[in-house]
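I have been asked to look over a protein record a colleague put together. The record follows directly below this note.
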Amino acid sequence: MRRGPCEQENPQMSTLQTDPLAYAPTDRRIWLMGLPVDNLTMGEAIQQITGSPGQPPRMVFFVNAHCVNVALRNQDYRRLLQRADLVLPDGIGLKLAGMALGTPIRDNANGTDLFPPLCRALAASGGRIFLLGARPGVAEGVCAWANRHCPELVITGCHHGYFTRAEEPLVIERIAQSGADLLFVAMGVPRQELWIGQHLESLGVRVALGVGGLFDFYSGRIPRAPLWMRRAGLEWLYRLIREPVRLGKRYLVGNPVFLGRVAWYAWRRGARRRPPWQEVPGPMEWPVRQARGRTGRAD
């Protein structure tokens, strides 16, 4: 059978071998506003993701200011984040929240910057990946990028994210039979996380990652912000300028709402005189009550 542009022949058994202790629970997990954040550097995150085989399948998610706002409205998404194996901080919003709440974020371990070194690590160790999501043709563009920049990486297949419910079992079967170690899912928040949580055991992969708009960037469909803007924490502004209709509400309304919630949590912690290391997971009390007051339900 002829293989598609993203598919390569691969052995039945993965040769991916790394530190056997890499899957030990991280001692860097902190809790910000009721959500877990694994406060890792980029290198530590890659080590966790490319951990030893033989473990149950794992979920890896990224959280930014928008994700926190969504988690306030969507209880299923919030609970899924709370039981995820790895939740990595993404963007200037989480950095500001960490500073305000007394738990500084060590690194901006966002998925877009993590992708190239993760691909190199997987290529060096024999790891295999499958790409799922975005518009038709976009995942193929990511494959083309990987073939140019990391030709040793084995991509066992790709599929767009616009499949129907009737087509879903065939997509899951294709992923499970591909022999992939890692699955990158780019369907947007919270759909990608909820989809991973629902189907993780059937996918046949060791790690499933929700990566948002990553495919759009590496396919070349949407350009990234200049490096100086990314380093200054202004990538959100660049994206807003380029896509004001789609992202206007997220940033112009969502960012102030997020900062207000951070300020409220900082005040609450100060009022209770709770030191940062005693922060514990719990419900997002104030925002959930506010949401109930408006809609009659928490999410």
Q: What stands out?
A: The mean pLDDT is 85. The chain has one domain: 29-46+53-223+233-269.
